[in-house]
Design brief:
Helix 4 (62-81) packs antiparallel against helix 11 (422-436). The strands form 4 sheets. Strands 3-4-15-8-9 form a 5-stranded mixed β-sheet, with no helix packed on it. Strands 2-1-5-6 form a 4-stranded antiparallel β-sheet, with helices on one face. A 4-stranded antiparallel β-sheet has the order 7-10-13-14, with helices on one face. The chain folds into 2 domains: 21-119 and 395-464, no CATH class; 133-375, no CATH class. A hairpin with a 5-residue loop joins strand 8 and strand 9 (311-313). The protein has 565 residues and is α+β, with helices and mostly antiparallel strands. Helix content is 47%, strand content 20%.
Amino acid sequence: MIYLYISCAQIRLGYHDIKRKSLFKRNTGVTNLITKVFNAIPFLPQIRNVIDWTFTSTCFDLFQWIKFESIYDSIFDAYTDSNPEDDDPIGERVARKKKIGMGGLLSFILIFLLIIPLVLFSSLNPTNKLNNLNAGKLNVDLTFIYESGVELNYNLFENTRAKTISDMFKNSNDDTDWKRYKYDQSVQTRNFNHEQIQIIKFSETSDRNWDLAEPHINDLIDLLNITKNEGLDSIILKIHTEFERSLPAETQTVSHDFEVPIFDTSMNVTSSEGAIKILDLKTALENCSNVEIELKEGYSSPLRITAGEEITEIEDEKYIPKKTIQLGFKGCEKEQKIIDNETVLINTYLKSYFTFKSKDPEEALFTGVEFHAFNDKISETTSGYSVLTFYLTFILVAGSYVADFLASEPEKIMFTDLPHPEKLVNLCEGIQIARYSYDFKGEETFYTILIEFMRSPEYLKMLTRSSMENLKKREQNTSQENEENEEEKEEDKGKDNDDEDDLLYKDEEEINRRISAEIERRKKRFGNGPPGGMNKKRGEDNKNGNNIDNIKEEKIEKQEKPQDK
């Protein structure tokens, strides 16, 4: 029904011969803001121009159309920005409220644009959420490092999955572990929320038996003979950890390596503690016996899992000591075999395995290796971006828009600072009217005139008038306002004098009334005159006479006071 009604109305009333003004060419505060935002969006104005040219009848080619729209936009911007009714006095200082309101607001916006990218990647981001770990893996290798830079690795221990992953705070009141590890005192840990901290524990024994082939075991035994291992620089125990989490999707797995030194060439190859531990391990492998090697200053159990790809050790010598670790070899058996009619014992490593344990320095018993994960919160909106890349991109894009908004281009002053561009706006509207009326000859004629005007600064100045006219007009308005203010002050002053005269006149009437009342009172009391011998009454009469004189003197003083004033 609505469609039929509109169709009937169109048939009855017909269509407009002239198209209404575009939304972008209406001089209102809202439409001006919409126009500026629309023109600031990349490619959108260009797409509009191309589509309009494609579906509009015109004699312009595409580049003439784009040129005309650009000129029209520039003139209309000057028209909306011009203020011919500006009546502010010449040379008047900008009000403090305006400076605080505009300057303070722009300063806040600029500082906000500089800080907002950093806030998005910080803990202040309101979209941050927990990103705790859900799986873990542990490997231990014995690494021989040579002076030439060559490294030989022998895998000893492997846990393909964590034994348990739990929250350090089982409830909000259970802070036993938190205080026991002194995390409430260290600057690096005390600011983390309870829900961000996890305990990851691994098993004491490897997941599989030590399946190294016997020739390689013999090679390892030869390498452990440090007195004959030429070119050896150091022997370390390398602990490799891997953890998995949900976010970010690109780096769900993060890893970290700990290197625990056992021996280096600066130590004595026979009597140093590291050399003795290497000798104990060599003896256990040769004799197929059990051994446990204890290494102090092993690793730091608290780890910070960042939102990126990094895992950093949280080290604080005052509150967070390093774990002591214990590497053990077990399960090796000797098997009797007859060789050349002789019974000999052969080492069999099929059931052998390594153990890997840890403890705090003040604890007595070793348990499975554990790590304390301090997980940074993460935002899904920024998880896939680098801080530096995002910041530079945001600053460059936002800076270009801010520069266009605040910067002034001197070469465009003749087109942007037009005091009265109404005639040029009318000429542009005339080109559009000719186009909609299919008067293509008039369209091209008006366009040529417009181009001629834009090529000549003198023509522009003649059509839009001089800026000095506005200045002279403001000066005249200022002088006129000053004269009016002076006249108002004179009128106010004359009005004040009239009020004072009225007040004096009222005071004189009051004095005369009081004098008449005093005379009437005396007549009633003494008649025409005081009786003879009545000195007392004559004295009173003198007093009354003095009162009358005093009243007259008061009258004279009041009359003189306004004159003195």
